[in-house]
Specification:
- Keywords: Membrane, Transmembrane, Transmembrane helix.
- It comes from Nonomuraea ferruginea.
- The chain starts with a helix and ends in a 14-residue tail after the last strand.
- The radius of gyration is 32 Å and the shape is elongated.
- Strand 7 (493-495) and strand 8 form a beta hairpin.
- The chain is of the alpha+beta class.
- It has 20 helices and 14 strands.
- Strands 7, 8, 9, 10, 11, 12, 13 and 14 form an eight-stranded antiparallel sheet that branches. A two-stranded antiparallel sheet has the order 1-2.
- Helix content is 52%, strand content 17%.
- It has helices spanning 4-46, 54-64, 69-72, 82-93, 99-125, 132-140, 145-148, 151-177, 180-194, 202-214, 221-244, 260-279, 300-320, 324-346, 348-357, 366-378, 399-418, 424-439, 458-461, 467-470; strands at 75-76, 79-80, 286-288, 294-296, 445-447, 480-482, 493-495, 501-511, 518-520, 525-546, 550-556, 559-565, 568-588, 592-604.
Length: 618
């Protein structure tokens, strides 16, 4: 028989459990609302983005290749990413530059990352209101914003941000239940991340640190061997592919250490100018790179203020929270090994300290790690014994003003980034070019020049920055591309910087035609140029009135080219490598009679009629 006290005790326990369940439901609902609000907020940014730079190269390369091991497993300048390669391969076959599809994928991944973090925080700490703070940090931080404007970066960073909390949540459940399926799930999520992002092996390293500090450590030998086997297998495949994959420069990767001074400077800027300020709502100001991207440009006073505030946050956590030092050490270790080292080995020499140090896409993945670390540094893990070094202070809401300031700074920073033109101008170029290709006659000859730098920079993408690679997928087989004009090409066209097709003109020097054409035979006829042409590749346009078809030999200095010249009135093009103040012509076969001669660079005609008349997006 139960006493009245026992019955009352059970009632009290029931009330407490009911209260905890209600509180848990409220926290879950609040977390879901925060994730949904983030999606609404960030959609304004995502919808205004477009493909940029290596996005075009990856899609064009996907169209050129079959879905083979060599295609999927090629390491592109340190990144082994079969998942993104497969998506780019599919993207090219689903309409090429389908930005609506890209935006949809981005928003789904954003939602999945937020929900995955909410699950991990609930599993790790329980359904307590405090978990909404690290969740809010991840949802608000501008650390991830530039990566959302770059499709290729989205395909790497966001799947990783989904996989990290899912894998760690499964690992936490394994340590509590010892059910093998949770360890398998942790490895499964890690393998998923490995298919998308080179930093993914650090997930299992974080699982080890998490166990070392806050989880049950007994009977873990088998799972550590399991995890270690996965890491070893991945390492073998990765390093084999890295040292055998041929890059766009037609050579293989040769990692080298940068100058020590440059490495230290770039690392300091990544930490002080990027990681710390963006963790507190920065950078507040952006440094535009072109029209559709920007680097962090944190003002110097705010850099130092961020460092002071960040140090204060760390010190407070160390004073009160047991093992907070391990949490911050995990964040620092991830930053140095996963963020800094790859940049030091592969890019800092080419980019310099500023570009490498203030490029937020290099630390975008750290936002998820930082959110987890903030939780570990301030919130007791569920079931943790003696979580505090000393009783927490009475002013437990002192963090609220700082959180409010950081949230306001994040909104300010994201709004400032969203104010950039983003993808509008690149989209206008591509959409206008697509319309132009649809309107010109079938089999028109189009000069295969490089696209504008705002679309793809040839210094980085070489042949994949040519219009045939970037725009060719929009109208396969409709036009004939040529890198150099040779012979009597009929009405050649060239793209202007706004994506319109124009007749070709040759800009340089002109030898005017006389009252009648000048006869040219087997002996060279020399035409003095109005000014000397320096060494280089020159396009020569020769007009003629011939009685019969012939071959015209065009010479500039030590370079010459043979081109066909037709019968009757017409024009022929020759591409010559040379220099000098005179142009010499002769024929092989029937004589010719030439008129006006132009030598220079092929450009869109100033007074031609462009197709279309105006860009699609003005």
């Amino acid at each position: 028989m139960l006493s009245r006290g026992g019955i009352a005790g059970r009632k009290d326990d029931g009330v407490a459990r009911a209260g905890q369940a209600v509180r848990g439901d409220v926290v879950l609902a609040a977390g879901l609302l925060m994730v949904a609000a983030q999606l609404v907020w960030k959609f304004e940014l995502v919808r205004r983005t477009y493909f940029r730079q290596d996005d075009f190269m990856f899609i064009a390369r996907g169209l050129e290749q079959s879905l083979t091991w060599d295609y999927l497993m090629r390491v592109d300048y340190g990144h082994m990413a079969p998942g993104p390669f497969a998506i780019q391969w599919l993207m090219g076959r689903l309409g090429g530059y389908n930005d609506a599809l890209a935006h949809g994928v981005t928003m789904c991944l954003l939602a999945a990352a937020g929900l995955a973090l909410l699950r991990l925080l609930t599993v790790l700490f329980g359904s307590r209101p405090a978990i909404l703070v690290p969740l809010g940090f991840f949802l608000l931080t501008p650390m991830t914003i530039p990566s959302l404007s770059w499709w290729s970066v989205v395909l790497g960073a966001l799947p990783f941000q989904v996989a990290v909390p899912m894998a760690l949540a499964s690992h936490v459940l394994y340590t509590r239940t010892r059910r093998r399926r949770h360890a398998v799930a942790a490895v499964g999520w890690t393998l998923f991340a490995m298919a998308f992002y080179v930093k993914s092996p650090f997930i299992l390293v974080m699982a080890f640190v998490l166990t070392l500090g806050w989880l049950a450590r007994d009977r873990m030998t088998r799972v550590w061997l399991f995890y270690g086997g996965v890491l070893a297998a991945y390492s073998v495949v990765f390093f084999h592919q890295m040292f055998t994959s041929v890059q766009l420069t037609n050579d293989t990767v040769r990692p080298s250490l940068p100058d020590a001074g440059l490495a230290v400077e770039a690392t300091w800027r990544m930490f002080s100018g990027s990681l710390v300020p963006t963790s507190l709502g920065g950078p507040w100001r952006w440094w535009p790179i072109g029209e559709d991207y920007a680097l962090a440009a944190t003002p110097a006073p705010l850099i130092w203020a961020s460092l002071v505030v960040g140090a204060a946050v760390v010190i407070v956590s160390l004073r009160y929270r047991r093992r907070a030092w391990l949490a911050w050490l995990m964040l620092l270790g991830y930053f140095l090994l996963a963020d800094v080292v790859p940049v030091m080995l592969g890019r800092v020499e080419a980019l310099g300290a500023d570009l490498a140090g203030f490029e937020l896409r290099y630390i975008a993945s750290t936002s998820m790690v930082a959110a987890i670390v903030i939780g570990l540094a301030f919130i007791p893990v569920a079931g943790e014994e003696r979580p505090w070094l000393r009783p927490p202070p009475r002013w437990r809401w002192a963090w609220a003003p700082l959180a409010a300031v950081c949230a306001a700074g994040s909104v300010w920073s994201v709004t400032a980034f969203t104010a950039l033109p983003l993808g509008r101008n690149v989209e206008s170029y591509v959409v206008t070019a697509e319309l132009a290709l649809a309107r010109v006659p079938q089999d028109s000859v189009v000069l295969d020049t490089f696209v504008p730098l705002k679309v793809a920079d040839p210094a980085f993408f070489f042949q994949y920055a040519r219009v045939s690679k970037v725009l060719g997928p929009l109208a396969p087989g409709r036009v004939n591309w040529t890198e150099r004009l040779s012979g009597p090409v009929r009405a050649p066209l060239v793209f202007d910087p706004r994506g319109r097709l124009n007749p070709v003109d040759v800009k340089g020097v002109t030898v005017p035609g006389g009252a009648s054409c000048t006869p040219v035979g087997s002996e060279e006829v020399v035409f003095p140029l109005p000014e000397r042409l320096p060494g280089g590749e020159w396009t020569v346009l020769v007009t003629y009135l011939n009685s019969a078809e012939t071959t015209l030999v065009v010479r500039l200095g030590g370079g010459q080219a043979e081109v066909r010249a037709g019968r009757d009135l017409g024009a022929t093009y020759a591409t010559v490598h040379g220099e000098g103040g005179e142009l010499a012509l002769r024929t092989v076969g029937a004589p010719a009679c030439v008129g006006e001669i132009k030598a220079g660079q092929p450009v869109p005609a100033e007074h031609g009629t462009p197709i279309p008349a105006r860009p699609v997006l003005p």
